[in-house]
Specification:
With about 230 residues, the chain is mainly alpha-helical. It has one domain. Helices cover about 75% and strands about 0% of the residues. The longest helix is centred in the middle third of the chain and has 31 residues. The chain is globular, with a radius of gyration of 18 Å. The mean pLDDT is about 85.
Length: about 230
């Protein structure tokens, strides 16, 4: 079985998301994603500001939590799976495994945020500016606690994989050798998605340490929301 086969299921999940067919949901999703990024920048300001963490923080905010070019990335991944046999000869196994985990996390983030967007559309005017209280109430109504904790657990696993597999000189050299082929076959967006991950790791002593610090704070927020804290994002 192809190592890229799991991407077919992920892409099918992504294609079925409601916002692709509903501009109102799409706009509210964009609002939720902006709120998420702004809130994370505020919550993790000290961690993100540390010099060695800047690139990884940008990767989290712009890649794993809903990048603007994810539709283009999804299209390229769909094409890649049609040429899985050739692709697997070019891309190191561990890079495929870790890249797939990153894609899965990005799609899960969009899926969960779309649910929030749809809840907000039920409860408020679609043009109403989002507030922390609106988001807190939406989280409570949706009861996403288990799914958000799953998201954070997957993120912890990605941190381990980045340290275990992606620091290898051999893996990175093999990955760089793919650049010509990715340009030739128009897979630049996907290559950049993974390249940004490599670049973000370089200044870090441990990607796992960065991720664990991030997820520990996020778990506290999830717990506060569902414990009824009126200001869980502060």
């Amino acid at each position: 079985m192809s190592k890229l086969a799991v991407l077919d299921d992920l892409l099918e999940l992504y294609i079925q998301l409601n916002y692709h067919k509903n501009p109102e949901i799409q706009q509210r999703l964009a609002d939720v994603q902006l709120w998420q990024k702004t809130r994370m920048q505020r919550t993790h300001a000290q961690q993100f500001a540390e010099k060695q963490n800047v690139l990884m923080a940008e990767y989290f905010l712009n890649r794993l939590y809903g990048g603007p070019d994810f539709d283009a990335l999804a299209e390229q991944i769909a094409r890649l799976t049609k040429y899985a046999h050739k692709a697997e000869k070019l891309i190191p196994d561990n890079a495929i495994k870790t890249g797939t985990s990153g894609v899965a996390l990005a799609i899960l983030a969009v899926q969960l945020d779309e649910q929030v967007a749809m809840q907000l559309l039920q409860d408020y005017h679609p043009n109403e500016t989002l507030t922390d209280e609106m988001m807190r109430q939406a989280y409570l109504k949706l009861n996403q606690s288990d799914d958000r904790l799953k998201q954070l657990a997957l993120l912890d696993e990605l941190g381990k994989s980045l340290d275990k597999y992606m620091r290898s000189f051999v893996v990175y050299t093999a990955f760089k050798m793919c650049k010509g082929a990715t340009t030739k076959y128009r897979f630049e967006v996907m290559y950049d998605f993974m390249q940004d991950g490599f670049s973000a790791m370089k200044p870090l002593k441990s990607a796992e340490k960065f991720v664990k610090e991030f997820t520990a704070t996020e778990r506290q927020i999830v717990a506060k929301v569902h414990a009824g804290d009126p200001n869980p994002f502060q």
